[in-house]
Design brief:
By secondary structure, the chain is of the alpha/beta class. The protein is built from 14 helices and twelve strands. It has a six-stranded parallel β-sheet, sandwiched between helices. Strands 3-4-5-6 form a four-stranded parallel β-sheet, sandwiched between helices. Strands 1-2 form a two-stranded parallel sheet. Strand 10, helix 10 and strand 11 form a beta-alpha-beta unit.
Length: 365
């Protein structure tokens, strides 16, 4: 997921010239492609994964002891949650990643139960964590504006550092990646994202049905991402209601390394989410150098700029009209492809990681 991607790139770009030792507290199940010499890993009990209550209790009872025993100067919580009685000598840094708990409109789409309670509890937990942090790393201007309002401008210190883009996602005009065998060879409309209530897959399918009905488009719609119940069932019901079983392909899981080819061979990439912070998927789609139709909800315009076309994600008719117009305008398709790739170069993991570590180290010093 996005959290692991964030950690992978931060640890890949750990500075070696600051005389700093980084101690990574994580379970063995969390794998990293490379860890530098100044990163030391301590084992975390595996039973804490997937058990937020047990993890919170562990952080309250054992984490302060570890911080004192190792004389830690700064505790970095990349998921944004801070628990326990942190020693006064230890600075606290949190990255704010999860916007969903702060979007009451999207939270109310979940039925009463675990997910609605979880998002309510996360709202309280994440806000209190940011208020007690010495430094909060925001990954978009939009996120900072939301939290400034929620916290009544009481955040101690903050910095805005957007995510970067892995270079393997950037399209090379001289070396186009081959189409994966499970995808159509004649192009397709692509939407990569989890199937969940705020991602608008149902509206995208409704728009696709209108597109086929009014323009007889033969391109298939490909949805890539795991399903969250019961929304996933509703997505499949929508496909069946429009008799689109042969035309809409749902792929719940693919290897991460296959994603660049999936993006780069799409006729059009679609991103219809209604709430985000700094979406990896949008950045990766920009780097693919293919035309993009993107939700007009904040913060998407912050990252897409003038390189993409925007639509209201709750309006299938508008999306259908814009898809049809784009498909019938090859000049605009080419122009948007070039602009998307150019826009992607504004986001680099080298600079994002450097700014992150520089901010943490400056605070610790």
């Amino acid at each position: 997921g996005g959290g692991q991607t964030y950690l992978q790139h931060l640890l890949k770009n750990v500075p070696a010239d600051h005389g700093v030792e980084i101690i990574l507290l994580s379970p063995d199940s969390l794998q990293f492609s490379s860890i530098k010499n100044n990163v030391r890993r301590l084992k975390l009990p595996g039973y804490l994964i997937g058990h937020p209550i047990l993890r919170t209790l562990w952080e309250m009872l054992f984490l302060p002891y570890i911080l004192r025993r190792l004389s830690i100067d700064a505790l970095f919580c990349p998921g944004g949650s801070v628990s326990g009685n942190i020693p006064r000598s230890c600075k606290v840094v949190a990255t704010f990643q999860n916007m969903l708990p702060f979007d009451i409109v999207q939270r109310r789409k979940y039925p009463f139960g675990y997910m609605r309670f979880r998002n309510w509890a996360l709202h309280k937990k994440l806000l209190s964590s940011m208020l007690r942090s010495d430094l909060v790393i925001f990954i978009s201007d939009y996120a900072k504006s939301v939290i400034d309002l929620e916290s009544k401008n009481l955040i101690n210190q903050s910095v805005i550092i957007p995510h970067g883009i892995d270079d393997k996602f950037r399209r090379n005009k001289n070396n186009i990646l081959p189409v994966p065998s499970w995808l159509p060879n004649n192009g397709y409309l692509l939407y990569v994202s989890i199937l969940d209530v705020y991602k608008s897959q149902i509206e995208v399918i409704e728009a696709y049905a209108l597109l086929k009905r009014n323009h007889n488009v033969d391109l298939k719609l490909v949805l890539v991402g795991p399903e969250f119940k019961p929304y996933g069932d509703k997505v499949r019901e929508t496909i069946k209601r429009h008799s689109l079983e042969k035309y809409v392909l749902i792929k719940e899981s693919i290897p991460y390394d296959d994603l660049p080819a999936v993006y780069q061979n799409a006729t059009i990439n679609i991103f219809a989410s209604q709430t985000e912070n700094c979406p990896f998927i949008l950045l990766e789609a920009l780097a693919s150098g293919r035309p993009l139709l993107v939700s007009n909800c904040l913060p998407m315009p912050e990252f897409g700029g003038s390189s993409v076309l925007y639509f209201k994600p709750t309006d299938p008719k508008e999306l259908a009209i814009k898809l049809a117009a784009l498909l019938m305008d090859p000049v605009l398709m080419t122009d948007l492809s070039e602009k998307a790739l150019e826009q992607s170069f504004k986001y680099s993991w080298d600079s994002a990681a450097k700014n992150t570590w520089d901010s943490i180290i400056a605070l610790a010093n």
